[in-house]
Amino acid sequence: MKSFGTGETSVTVLKGIDLDVYFGELLLLVGESGGGKTTLLSAIAGILDVDSGDLDVLGASLTKMAPGTRTSFRGRRMGFVFQQFNLLPALTAAENVAIPLLIQGTRRQEAIARGRVMLERVGLGDRTEFLPRNLSGGQQQRVAVARALVNDPQLLVCDEPTAALDGPNGQKIMELIRDVGRVPGRCVIVVTHDNRIFHYADRIEEMEDGKIKERPSDLVMEESRRVHDYTLDPPDEPAPK
Ligand SMILES: Nc1ncnc2c1ncn2[C@@H]1O[C@H](COP(=O)(O)OP(=O)(O)O)[C@@H](O)[C@H]1O
Ligand SMILES: [Mg+2]
Fold first, then answer.
1. Is residue 109 part of a domain?
2. Which ligand lies nearest to the CA atom of residue 33 in the structure?
């Protein structure tokens, strides 16, 4: 559980969430704005402490870890992509991608070389020395995806990765996250309220009012079925009168 504030003004944002994510899958976490999706991701990332409950991520209990351990755990095992690409404006694309490696103490030359390789994998091999401002929004988000994946994290977490992009660029970024991010030994969580990307999901969970809904709403299911052959258990029998 997570609440913000105290006393009468306190709001409980996460309530009794039980969410499993499996290696090799892309889990889409959808739901209206204000439902608690970003708060949940912040807890998973270990950026935000939950008030109660246990939080196991990649087989380790975040709630029991010391803050320093948690920070290095996050750096080594997780990658993040945000709505706003969060690139450092004075650094080239390759340098931006190298940041997670530099933080972990990789030598500069090697880190940047690996940054370039990663940029090739996201289709930006000819833009490695560009500054962010000379790249389009879609290209900047590709750089951010490359940065999130450069240290080969087991968990990739993306918060509204297409929200700042137009339709076609949003589709391209999701294709990339699916193809490059979703590999055996890694799991991907994408948070979105953009129904144009629902069909990239292997599985969809819907969040509302701080909880995971037991069954996603029909609209969510319809959208995800449009392209993807997504199956649900048959609906429960109506209760006898
Ligand atoms: N730091 C904070 N202090 C107080 N309330 C917050 C804070 N962060 C988020 N909230 C509230 O928590 C609720 C869930 O927010 P959020 O997790 O951002 O939802 P979502 O990402 O699904 O739009 C909202 O009502 C929001 O106003
Ligand atoms: Mg959010």
1. yes
2. 1
